[in-house]
Design a protein that fits this description.
six-stranded mixed β-sheet; globular; 40% helix; alpha/beta; 419 residues
Amino acid sequence: DSHDAHGAPLGAEEGEATRKQLGWKYGEFEVPQQVYDTFRKHAAAGAAKQAEWNKTWAAYQEKEPELAAQFKRAVLDRQLPDGWADALPKLTPDDKGKATRLHSQDCINAIASTLPEFIGGSADLAPSNMTLMKCTGDFLKGSYSERNMRFGIREFGMGAVANAISLDKTGLIPYCATFTIFSDYMRGAIRIAALSQAGTIFVTTHDSIAVGEDGPTHQPIETLPSLRLIPDLTVMRPADGNETAGAYKYAVERSKLHSRPTFMAFSRQALPNLPNSSIENVQKGAYEVVECANPTLILIGTGSEVSICVDAAKELESTGAKVRVVSMPSCEVFRDQPAIYKNALLPKHVPKMSVEAACTSGWGEFADAYVGIDVFGASAPGDTCMDKFGFNVPNVVSCAGRCLAGERGVLSNGSQGKH
């Protein structure tokens, strides 16, 4: 009777005493014959059930050929239908901008109408996460054909259920949703999804200090940088409608075809649709939003900060600087690209500055100087928070000038918002 039994081997003597106490008369690694006999009986019963299923399946194919073909694709073959991604929205800079959580809603409903195996829901935040599928009802007792799951306020349980749906290997594509900051409550489930190779799509909204009046308790500062540390988890932070569609294309294919998880973070505030953004460019992890053949400076943004970088580049170019703006919706996807592409997009000899409304840690892999927020936010309107903590064109232009002058490291950490 000791705590040592929790983390240390029992030893031969204690092992023998345990077997004796349990009435187990066999030695170490000795399997009695009745165990083999029992399992062989199960095998015979299983073979009979398989034969019965094959008969049922053949009859179903005869009676419902269209549904049977759908079942074969989605469940038995675990493939996506040809052209499924054509249903995803495509936008131009002329289209009115809106929050990426609203673009996410458009994508979810486009996917729901195309893929009957798409199933999921929110931790009691569907009206805020914009995750309700309009073409189906609530998955409840007696309503198993519906696909909206009402998880309640239980983020970890929600993530665990979604993981189980994927790991059951039925071909279903599960998603679950909450605020980005509340992903901390299901961190264990997110980590297990990556470790266990579950194809869960983690949808989160309210991705930065632009959340506003809810204040620091709801403003994710360290959340995305810390999630990027989890092996085999892809983190996506789209900057506009096309990037959101690209993120869903990546996440659905990663779930269905590779059984791997994706974490997505969407904005509460409206964002403009960017030049050069596309579903295809998201599959590279990073790409040029503002093209420049021979840049003297490269600005790297994610999510809502990409459009700030675009506007800052215009001002910098009026001073004679040649600026390339790179959107990096996913560090992990970009990291997996060929070296020739990565080196061409982010040449080593050109100074690079990252701009992200999150902790600056981790950006040393891609940039030389960083604009971020290494302090907690504040309770104020979202636009006010972004401005006061340095996510505005004048501050990005000022920091870019310092970067061009040779300064490196953290050039803006949000501490100005505390004064």
